[in-house]
Amino acid sequence: MRLDVNLLDYALIAIYFATVLAIGFAARRRITTSLDFFLAGRGLPAWITGLAFVSANLGAIEILGMAANGAQYGAMTVHFYWIGAIPAMVFLGIVMMPFYYRSKVRSVPEFLRRRFNGATQLLNAITFAVAQILIAGVNLYALALVMEALLGWPLPVSVVVSAVIVLSYITLGGLSSAIYNEVLQFFVILAGLIPLTVLGLIKVGGVSGLFEKVRQSPLGEGGLHTWAGTAGDNPMHAHWIGIVFGLGFVLSFGYWTTNFAEVQRALSARNTNAARLTPIIAAYPKIFIPLVTVLPGLIALVLFGDLGQGRAYNDAIPLLMGDLLPNGVLGVAVTGLLASFMAGMAANISGFNTVFTNDIWQAHLVKDRPDGYYLRVGRIATVVGVVMGVGTAFIAAGYSNIMNYLQALFSFFNAPLFATFIVGLFWKRMTPWAGFWGLLAGTLAAFTSYILYKSGVVAFGTELNASFWGAGIAFGVDVLVSVVVTLVTTAKPESELRGLVYGLTVDLEDDALAGDAKWYRSPVLLGAGAVVLAIAMYGVIL
Q1: DSSP characters for 35-63?
Q2: If 0-12 CB within 10 Å is exposed, 13-18 middle and 19+ buried, where does residue 347 land?
Q3: Angle, CA 490 vertex, CA 489 and CA 492 arms, to 5°
Q4: CA 275, 280, 285, 289: dihedral to nearest 10 degrees?
Q5: Contact between 24 and 350 (Cβ < 8 Å)
Q6: Distances from the Cα of 97 to the Cαs of 2, 273, 348, 499, in angstroms?
Q7: Helix, coil or strand: residue 140
Q8: CA-CA distances (angstroms) from residue 412 to 93, 229, 322, 348?
């Protein structure tokens, strides 16, 4: 897979590295308080935070993993976008962001402390921190895999060089630096993936040629459909109940509405309306991302006959780059992969340093210190998080398709959190200890389900289907335990729940800005448009 990289390609990569570091140095001048470092001073416009929101998710995991899914499972991979992302992103913007933003919390675990208790905050903070380090490791492994294969860089060199770049600009400029770099990275990623997709389609004879070749591949006709066969046989071995409930509801809402690595971008917005618009603006490009991730996976499947047999599905994008791209364009594509890695890992590490500092260190270990002290702790946590991410990178090496590993992590950590959060948000009677024990029980249930699948006790068919069902089981167990514990413990008084539970509002100063009332800044209208567009996309391939 070695690429014929020349001086022009390396020059483009060097320019990109220099640019992201320059953004970090520029952002450093604005960092005077911990709020500036962790939440960009809550002063960014919606279009900036919206692009950062989608870019933070468009990491190396997304690009390599969804292309791998496209090659392994075919068109059914679009479920991760159209039912597995858009409805939850719209729900986050319309329903949940007002609670997050107006409560002035700095993180999701801090919201859980106010709604439940310190034990629930600490449990969520620890599981979130572990998850972010593991996912950062996946990003590191994905990048190292690409750099070693394409450029000939030794794996340790690839990991260390890239980790140092991310470490530098986050430590310098905090979330502001991460967000502005993510906006840049969004366009760099597309600049690398669009030519790859177009040239790939040309080589296989256009869309019609691709479809015909997929029919002749191991996927067969099932590789071209999304819902057909979901009551019986399909490439993913997934039933429509698992797709709708496990992916479309539990995994999707669990990830997009409670994952602080994403929510953090919206919390940095300049007012409530901008915070609500953040995930909704991000939803529109998210709808079309499958065109540059899933589609290349299908192209790689028909061009390279040993994919999934002699070669890992993770190699789909690197193989296409080596086969299709000329110099110059190749440099842009490699830079795009670097950008995707940095966007993904920056989201993981900025989320980790915020939660570790505010929800573990300050809330439970070292309290009542000056603000500058916690700013220093945040920078140290950034270094520690990157180093630990390097250590966990090799766990991902055991998976031929890294997206399988990632979805398993989401079923462990996000699905039970969503159950605790959504029940607590809409049921004021839910008690503080119900939050803790429900979250713990749901997390353990997800682990148990996965272990039973891996040991052969339960047959789910595929890793992804196991994650769908594991997420559903975790959600159900969490809700059941929460209800039982609520019935035998004492609830908080309503006065402590105002602004934290649906229906118990609190009088806050109106932070609307001029122009927020215009129709094109309406979260409800724009959110409805995104959902309708996602449904319409399904009409193209059923």
Answers
A1: HHHHHGGG-B-HHHHHHHHHHHHSSHHHH
A2: buried
A3: 140
A4: 110
A5: no
A6: 45, 9, 20, 12
A7: helix
A8: 24, 28, 36, 17
CA distance from start to end of the chain: 35
| Cα angle, residue 393 at apex, residues 464 and 475 outer, rounded to 5° | 35
Give yes or no for a contact between 404 and 431, defined as CB atoms under 8 angstroms apart. Answer: no
Distance CA 505, CA 2 (A): 59
- Residue 128 and residue 385 in contact, taking contact as beta carbons nearer than 8 Å: no
How far apart are the C-alpha atoms of 458 and 447, rounded to whole Å? 13
CB 358 within 8 A of CB 139: no
Residue 42 Ramachandran class (φ > 0 left, ψ -120 to 50 alpha, else beta): left
Name the residue with tokens 């399909």. 234
- Cβ 33 vs Cβ 375: under 8 Å: yes
Q: In the numeric block, which tokens belong to residue 119?
A: 């034990």
Q: From the CB of residue 426, how many other CB atoms can be counted at a distance below 10 Å?
A: 12
Q: How confident is the model at residue 508 (pLDDT cuts 50, 70, 90)?
A: low
Residues 6+ apart with CB under 8 A from 304: 311, 316, 319
Alpha-carbon span 430 to 140, nearest angstrom: 40
Whether the model clears a pTM of 0.85, i.e. scores above it, the answer is no
Closest CA to 272 of 482, 521, 529: 521
Q: What tens digit of pLDDT does each residue of 379-409 get?
A: 888 888 888 887 777 676 666 666 777 778 8
Q: Give the H/E segment covering residue 319.
A: helix 316-324
Asked whether the beta carbons of 415 and 474 are under 8 A apart, the reply is yes
Task: Give CA torsion, residues 233, 238, 241, 246, to 10 deg.
Answer: 180
Q: Is 365 exposed, middle or buried (0-12, 13-18, 19+ CB in 10 A)?
A: exposed
Single-letter amino acid, residue 188: V
252 neighbors 29 (Cβ within 8 angstroms): no
Residues in the chain: 542
Task: Tell me the C-alpha distance between 356 and 382, whole Å.
Answer: 10
What pLDDT digit, counting tens, does each position of 357-369 carry? 989 999 999 998 9
Q: What 3-state class would DSSP assign to 269?
A: strand
d(CA 63, CA 77) in angstroms, rounded, equals 12
Q: Which tokens is 163 given?
A: 């980790």
DSSP 206-226: HHHHHHHHHHTSTTGGGGG-S
* Euclidean distance between CA atoms 473 and 478, whole angstroms: 8
* 85 CB-near residues (< 8 Å, 6+ apart): 252, 256, 283, 286
Inter-helix orientation angle 316-324/290-303, to 10°: 80
